[in-house]
From TrEMBL:
Catalytic activity reported: D-ribose + ATP = D-ribose 5-phosphate + ADP + H(+)
Cofactor stoichiometry and binding remark: Requires a divalent cation, most likely magnesium in vivo, as an electrophilic catalyst to aid phosphoryl group transfer. It is the chelate of the metal and the nucleotide that is the actual substrate.
Function, in words: Catalyzes the phosphorylation of ribose at O-5 in a reaction requiring ATP and magnesium. The resulting D-ribose-5-phosphate can then be used either for sythesis of nucleotides, histidine, and tryptophan, or as a component of the pentose phosphate pathway.
Organism (species): Muricoccus roseus
Subcellular compartments: Cytoplasm
Binding site for ATP: N178, T209, L210, G211, E212, R213, G214, G241, D242
Binding-site positions, K(+): D236, T238, A272, R275, G277
Protein name: Ribokinase
Activity regulation comment: Activated by a monovalent cation that binds near, but not in, the active site. The most likely occupant of the site in vivo is potassium. Ion binding induces a conformational change that may alter substrate affinity.
Cellular component aspect of the GO annotation: cytosol
InterPro entries cross-referenced by the UniProt entry: PfkB_dom, Ribo/fructo_kinase, Ribokinase, Ribokinase-like
Main location: cytoplasm
Residue ranges of every copy of the Carbohydrate kinase PfkB domain listed in the record: 3-283
EC numbers: 2.7.1.15
Length: 292
């Protein structure tokens, strides 16, 4: 079954630095690189490289950055016919990565703010629809309700953590958050930060990624925990969460249970952090198979 990703596409300007800059601090680093990025595009590439049939809907500008933003999608065979071309500049991110692989990111949304849910073609029953929060939340909300009405599985990665209509949140088939996003949401709901507590508060399946401690999930069928895979070397953590989400969506689209999909997603994320960049770091299916 197909995976449809609605989300952001950026051109990432990546600066390797010895230490992350502090306020008022200028750091001289190594040669910078221009790479494709954006949470939506990263996750679409991850899903496609894991073997899913993927289409991407988002927005870019009519500028030189658009070719960078769309390059990995095209290279991975993602259908980009639903991408809107706008007069706004293509979204861009400035990413500093230190010697330990930690990152510091500033994002200018640009054309991503003009992405609209009605760009997404008709949805099929059983299709996985993957969203993030780098496009207008109200457009995500529209697509969530449309996916539910179509019998598709609506999956939202709450990254970055921003408000979305409560009725849309409770209409999801799966919510994904990292520890920081889970803590933000738990504060809004007045509950604990665990996947089980968030599931109880929202009434939907919830998965929480825990970095080097793996991931946990809770839903009507029970609770699950997947340990992390330890990479040989952590080079860049920028695309770890996007790799996890994209591969999870691809695996769910094949009818795999959530517990097994989480394990595969953890393996893919371990490979992604061992490489530089975001979209370009996403592993091929056979690489994840090998680690598993």
């Amino acid at each position: 079954m197909r995976v449809t990703v609605f989300g952001s596409a950026n051109a990432d300007l990546v600066f390797p630095v010895p230490v992350l800059p502090a306020p008022g601090h200028t750091v001289l680093g190594g040669p910078w690189r221009a790479l494709p990025g954006g949470k939506g595009a990263n996750q679409a590439v991850a899903a496609a490289r894991d073997g899913a049939v993927v289409r991407f809907a988002g927005a870019v500008g009519r500028d030189a950055m658009a070719a960078i933003a769309l390059s990995a999608l095209r290279g991975a065979g993602v259908d980009v016919s639903a991408v809107a071309w706008t007069d706004s500049p293509t979204g861009a991110a400035c990413i500093c990565v230190d010697a330990a692989g930690r990152n510091q990111i500033a994002v200018s949304p640009g054309a991503n703010a003009l992405a609209r849910a009605d760009q997404v073609p008709p949805l099929a029953e059983g299709e996985v629809v993957l969203m993030q929060m780098e496009v207008p939340p109200e457009e995500n909300a529209r697509l969530i309700h449309r996916a539910r009405a179509s019998g598709a599985l609506a999956v939202l990665n709450l990254a970055p953590a921003l408000p979305i209509a409560p009725d849309a949140l409770r209409a999801l088939g799966l919510l994904i958050a990292n520890e920081h996003e889970a803590a933000w949401l738990a504060a809004q709901l007045g509950c604990a930060t665990s996947a089980a507590a968030l599931h109880a508060a929202l009434g939907i399946p919830v998965a929480v990624t825990l970095g080097e401690r793996g991931a946990e999930a809770a839903g009507p069928e029970g609770r699950w925990r997947s340990p992390a895979f330890v990479p040989d070397r952590v080079q860049d953590t920028t695309g770890a969460g996007d790799s996890w989400c994209g591969v999870l969506a691809a695996t769910l689209s094949r009818g795999t249970p959530l517990e097994d999909a989480m394990r595969r997603a953890c393996a893919a994320a371990a490979i992604a952090v061992s490489r530089p960049g975001a979209a370009d770091a996403m592993p091929l299916a056979e690489e994840t198979d090998g680690l598993l």
